[in-house]
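fyi for ur records
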Amino acid sequence: MTSANSVDRTCHILNISIDLCTVDEPAAGGQRRIPGGTTLLKWTVDQLQWDSGSLATFDEAGYLLLGQLLSAEGLSAAQHELTRMLAELHPALRSDEIYSAHQSEPWLLELVSSTAILDVVEQVIGENIVIWSTHLICKPPGTGRAIPWHQDGTYWNLAGRMTSLWLAFDDVDDENGTMSVLPGYHRGILPRRGTGDDFFDEEIDPAALPQDVAARAVAYRFSAGEGAMHDVLIPHRSPPNRSPDRWRRVLVVRYMSADGDLGQKQYPHYRTNLPFDRQFILLRGRDIRNRGLIPAGDFLAKMRSG
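which gave:
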């Protein structure tokens, strides 16, 4: 992992305005005016768990625990919105297949645009920040799929600085299928092998992992509203949700520097199952390659206007 001030790492087979104006962060830095009232809903705490030594720790380990991200009201609002979305999920889709819903759900774009979050993201990838994708991964009680050790960035075929945010909307632990990362193994692409599984057909070759991988792995055991940031090449895995009565609902956000190679993609809309194109939304800074990136405030206004 390289810091924002060092030479970019090229991930070959990985994980605004046109006049270069500076984009203002939307909705007062991730706040929403509550309908019918005059107060603002504040999605996050004022400052995440990040200090002068955090970037070096992140670069060395490939991940960093950020502590509490969401405010009490932000967590409550997010849980409410997510419960609604799951009730509206198209029957052909699974609850771990909600991709880039920030393009149709204003609350989600507001959340991922919050000032406190972007302040940390900027330390890792620089001041010009695009949201590349979001993924809501929701494992119901007693279900969900086991995901083997893998590296996200190996599948994306991109070049540029990226980082991922992992945010829990429920208390998460080993029983309900939380994710584990392998610190220090994020500096290159590890060899892979086939799994024979239709859904997740590759995994890191076990021979490339340390023999004591279970002891080295760090599980994300979080209270609802807590989160972490990790490198797009850090190996990670997750078991099924074995809890009889607890969901495991998390949000993964992929942020990219605005000078990166963005890549085209279509996703199924979570309500209709119809395909839609990935949009490249500028959350902070400038469209430094003059590609017509969409300022987040403009995108939010368009969504709200219907």
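The helical segments are 27-30, 54-61, 72-87, 106-112, 115-125, 213-216, 296-305. thats all i got for now
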